[in-house]
Amino acid sequence: MFAWSWISADEPLLDEACSLGVADACAWMSDLTQDDPGQSRSYLETACQLELPMACLEVHKRLTPTCEHDCYAVDEAQARERSRSHAAPVGVAPTASRHRDGEGA
């Protein structure tokens, strides 16, 4: 983070760097915008999407049921969409329906 220390107070420049795909800049903006939780979350999630491991860890921590500080509420619509996107591939039936009545077990 030392490399960013000289620029850390320049929010417009950090915002631009984030929009150009600089994950560290997005993480800095998340920290600088903590007074606006929605905007701060958006920057942190963007940093994670840009593959900054510590940002992903922080997003995960804030979404867990055991979170105690700066927690994020789970968006139910997003949760349903994610569960659909992680469903079994087309043509592959869930295990329970393939092994009905003990067949194939």
What does this structure look like?
- The longest helix has 13 residues, at 37-49.
- Helix content is 54%, strand content 0%.
- α1 packs across α2 (23-32), α2 (23-32) runs antiparallel to α3 (37-49) and α3 (37-49) crosses α4.
- The protein contains 6 helices and no strands.
- It is mainly α.
- The radius of gyration is 20 Å and the shape is globular.
- The termini are far apart.
Throw out a few tags for this protein.
single chain, 105 residues, mainly alpha
Which consecutive residue ranges, at least 5 long each, have pLDDT under 50?
92-100
The number of E-state strands comes to 0
- Mass-distribution shape: globular
The proportion of strand residues reads under 5%
Helix/strand/pairing category: mainly alpha
The helix/strand series, from N terminus to C terminus, equals HHHHHH
Number of alpha- plus pi-helical segments: 6
Q: What percentage of residues falls in helices of 4 or more residues?
A: 40-55%
What does the largest sheet look like? none
Report Rg: 20 Å
Report how far the terminal alpha carbons are from each other: 54 Å
The average pLDDT score comes to 78
